[in-house]
Write a structure and sequence with these properties.
- This protein is α/β, with parallel strands linked by helices.
- The chain is built from 15 helices and 14 strands.
- The termini are far apart.
- It has two domains: 252 residues, no CATH class; 223 residues, Nitrilase/N-carbamoyl-D-aminoacid amidohydrolase (4-Layer Sandwich).
């Protein structure tokens, strides 16, 4: 086997492994250096790429490794619980991973294009800036294109233990993506430049500057983690997070519904907490069909505890169905309706074109829900102002802050039983940790099978129930007031930094365009 053939085989294999390695930065592993090391390997290949096509290929293969290892659980949802045939489910999962892999492919191609094929000092610096700016921008674009799927945004890999998590309350998860990728890009360029002959003086100077930059970023992040962006308000509230552990395959079976109602009623009445929280769609009935005896007993128990109960169920209004959280108890009843729905899970995009998928391949309940309002107010319950969100919604930090700074507590009601005993529930927990950091609030998670937990305002998990067990997690939750910079400005600070970066990397191309155009016109005149 020739050296070239061996390299051609080694490169895609190495890139696949590097992509898979990045998943170790996410929960449940939390080994945040893994994501940076993984990116360094990818960027090393990019810095040595001679064409945008080569860089795009490297980025695509890396993406297949990353998303293939990180969101394989989509297959479980489609096949085991959605009823899709295994071949179709596997193909659909691969197509999603391939689509997501187009984003790192685009970053690689554009980075090489804007910097040129040479890794001289000027081009290398341009590429070093282009990679993090474009990567962070694509992470952000993934959060809204086709309704958004920002899973495995690289900034999450630094939550909560990395010093880089200290930047989260200021510039959010996409800003942390920018900084994380910049560090990897800087080191990747340094490694690539090791193969170019330069004077020892120049190498020493650049190494010193690079090390100083890395240390400054690391130290500032560590110091920012010590900042108390918000302040406690009032006394802690006793909270009970109910985890019913209802098998997803049985959740909507009519014969089991009565048992489920009885289980959650018993769990609620066994708690003396001021705030009792049930998971997403905990009660498998429409709110209008909830037995009066159940509603009355829940209300009486909440009043006896001088508090309230949050109940997950489905509402029907004017022919529309909503995934909702309803409050019952001492305070005036309030409701939150999920507004950011999961495509192909809770609504059918382009129903005329894709409706056949549900008719022929899938058997998912509640697959055509209506959206709640984008701007809903916190619930005033249990002496707190509670900002509720449901399941997938807490992946979108810019949406969570809509109820802030008024809210004192954040509540996420979820059901990750759709993904079996996979990494999904742990990854989802990490995303909630990021929301706690961004907002400086305590986050309470009540789930069907896990991860039921309480997260402090610094992103640390303060209490965590065992997965796949019927249990009640009792905690004391402290409310907080005030605003972090991210609550005030959302993603605008991050976007402003990216805009400046785009000007830096794009200006040489823009400045060169008139000259290039003039050369073309002159050459055409000479030809004539």
């Amino acid at each position: 086997m020739s050296l070239l053939t061996r390299y051609q085989f080694f490169k895609p294999t190495a890139l696949l492994l590097l992509g898979a390695l990045s998943v170790l930065g996410f929960a449940p592993f939390y080994f945040y250096p893994a994501s940076i090391i993984s990116l360094i390997g990818l960027f090393y290949f990019w810095h040595l790429s001679y064409t945008p096509k080569q860089a795009a290929f490297a980025g695509f293969i890396y993406g297949l490794g990353m998303f293939g290892a990180g969101i394989y659980w989509i297959y479980i949802s489609l096949h085991e619980f959605g009823g899709m045939p295994s071949l179709m489910a596997g193909f659909s999962t691969f197509v999603l991973c391939a689509f997501l892999s187009l984003f790192p492919a685009a970053v690689g191609a554009l980075s090489v294009w804007v910097s040129g094929v040479s890794i001289s000092a000027k081009q290398g610096c341009t590429m070093m800036i282009a990679i993090p700016v474009l990567w962070a921008m694509t992470d952000w674009i993934r959060s809204w294109i086709f309704t958004g799927f920002p899973w495995l945004t690289i900034g999450y890999s630094q939550v909560p233990y990395s010093p880089l998590a200290g930047y989260m309350p200021i510039i959010g998860v996409y800003g942390v993506s920018l900084i994380t990728v910049f560090i990897a890009s800087l080191i990747g360029l340094w490694l690539a430049n090791r193969f170019i002959n330069r004077s020892h003086t120049v190498i020493w100077q650049r190494n010193a500057i690079a090390i100083a930059i890395l240390l400054l970023i690391w130290i500032c992040g560590s110091l920012l983690k010590l900042v108390e962006w918000t302040t406690p308000i009032g006394k802690p509230t006793s909270v009970a997070l109910l985890q019913g552990n209802i098998a997803q395959s049985l959740k909507w079976v009519p014969e089991v519904a009565e048992q489920t109602l009885a289980k959650y009623l018993t769990m609620a009445e066994a708690s003396q907490a001021q705030l009792i929280i049930m998971p997403e769609t905990a009660l498998p009935v429409l709110s209008s069909e909830l037995p009066d005896v159940v509603r009355t007993r829940l209300q009486q128990h909440a009043i006896f505890n001088k508090g309230d109960i949050l109940v997950g169920l489905v509402e029907r209004e004017n022919g529309d169905y909503f995934n909702s959280i309803l409050s019952i108890g001492s305070a005036q009843s309030a409701v939150y309706r999920k507004s950011h729905l999961v495509p192909f899970g809770e609504f059918i995009p382009l129903k005329a074109a894709f409706g056949w998928i549900y008719r022929d391949w899938l058997n998912m309940p509640l697959s055509d829900l209506a959206r709640g309002s984008l701007h809903q107010q916190p619930m005033r319950i249990a002496h707190q102002k509670v900002a509720v969100n449901i399941c997938y919604e807490d992946v979108f930090g810019e949406e969570i802050i809509r109820q802030l700074p008024q809210a004192t507590l954040l509540v996420n009601a979820s059901n990750d039983a759709w993904y079996g005993e996979s990494l999904a529930a742990y990854q989802h927990l990490q995303f909630s940790q990021a929301r706690a950091l961004e907002t400086g609030r305590t986050v309470l998670r009540a789930t069907n099978t896990g991860a039921t937990a309480m997260i402090g305002p610094h992103g640390n998990v303060l209490a965590h129930a065992p997965h796949f067990s019927e249990t009640t997690l009792n905690v004391m939750a402290q409310g907080y007031s005030g605003s972090t910079p991210y609550v005030r400005f959302g993603n605008w600070l991050f976007l402003a930094i990216c805009f400046i970066g785009l000007l830096f990397i794009g200006w040489p191309k823009l400045a060169g365009s008139p000259k290039s155009l003039a050369k073309i016109l002159v050459s055409q005149r000479k030809t004539k």
